[in-house]
Write a structure and sequence with these properties.
CATH topology: Growth Hormone, Chain: A
GO molecular function: symporter activity
Largest sheet: none
Membrane topology: Multi-pass membrane protein
Radius of gyration: 21 Å
Shape: elongated
CATH architecture: Up-down Bundle
Function: May be a proton symporter involved in the uptake of osmolytes such as proline and glycine betaine.
Keywords: Cell membrane, Membrane, Symport, Transmembrane, Transmembrane helix, Transport
Family: Belongs to the major facilitator superfamily. Metabolite:H+ Symporter (MHS) family (TC 2.A.1.6) family.
Number of helices: 13
Distance between the termini: 60 Å
Helix content: over 70%
């Protein structure tokens, strides 16, 4: 979403409300996003992609996980356009609800043993929906935070949405860890038990509904920023925001895209893949000297 070119105006939302709407909402959406990432390693290869070869099952699970990255830029374009046309509040509420519904439904999906190939197909559809939703979240939350920031504190307020990603990641993995401890494997605490694979893994996805309700309650209390209202009143809302962005800031868009590409490659290598490595028995032997 592009920032509107309006004169400085007194923020209409209190600092606490802005911080809560940007930080809490982003935390919840990234919690939903990362819950899937953890399940893609621990659960989905066994329940949705059964195979005699565990590596094949894991790669199939990762392929669906990565599908969200294809939907993410599509969601960014869609929600970015919506935010510049209809307002930031509408966009953030819509993206949060989309993410919450998709995550909640994953918690009730039947497995491959129950409905066959339809199970991974439905999982793929819901994962694409998650990616579509997250595309409108982070940039939208950052824009809300900075547009509503007091004069001289835009950079400071812009940091709060960025905290949502690591906090959501910690909550998602922490909840899985607690459930795994509560439903231990009888032989090895590092392995997943039958109870965990049977129903325990669904809890974090279903719990998402509670968090989304909290996020909606916070975001619905927001009012549109003075900058957006003033631009709307003066008729400065662009008919095609994406076109103007690419026409005037194409170089910045390309640079920003590749910067984030490098960031996410490193992030998911050190989180999702590391979880795979850390939970897989290794047969490597020390070399002979």
């Amino acid at each position: 979403m592009s920032a509107t070119s309006a004169k400085e105006a007194k923020p209409l939302n209190s600092p606490g409300r802005v911080i809560a709407a940007s930080l809490v909402g982003t935390t919840i959406e990234f919690y939903d996003f990362y819950v899937y990432a953890t399940a893609a390693v621990l659960v989905f290869p066994k329940l949705f992609f059964p195979s005699e070869n565990s590596t094949t099952a894991l790669l199939a699970s990762f392929a669906v996980f990565g599908a969200a990255m294809v939907a993410r830029p599509v969601g960014a374009v869609f929600y970015g356009h919506m935010g510049d046309k209809r307002g930031r509040k509408t966009t953030l509420v819509a993206s949060l609800m989309t993410m919450g519904i998709a995550t909640f439904l994953i918690g009730f999906l039947p497995t491959f043993d129950q409905i066959g190939i339809l199970a991974p197909v439905l999982l793929l559809a819901l994962r694409l929906t998650q990616g579509f939703a997250i595309g409108g979240e982070w940039s939208g939350a950052a824009l809300v935070a900075t547009e509503n920031a007091p004069e001289g504190k835009r950079g400071w307020y812009g940091t709060f949405p960025q905290l949502g990603a690591p906090i959501g990641f910690i909550i998602a993995n922490g909840l899985f860890l607690i459930i795994n401890w509560a439903l231990p494997h009888p032989d090895d605490p590092l392995m997943t038990s039958d109870a965990f694979l049977g129903w325990g893994w669904r809890i974090p996805f279903i719990f998402s509904a509670v968090m989304v309700i909290i996020g909606l309650w916070v975001r619905l209390k927001l009012t549109e920023s003075a900058a957006f209202k003033q631009a709307e009143k003066q008729g400065k809302i662009s008919k095609l925001p994406l076109g103007e962005t690419l026409r005037h800031h194409f170089r910045e868009v390309v640079l920003g895209t590749f910067i984030m590409l490098a960031t996410y490659v490193l992030f998911y290598l050190t989180t999702t893949f590391a979880l795979t490595y850390g939970t897989t028995a290794q047969d490597a032997k020390p070399p002979d000297f």
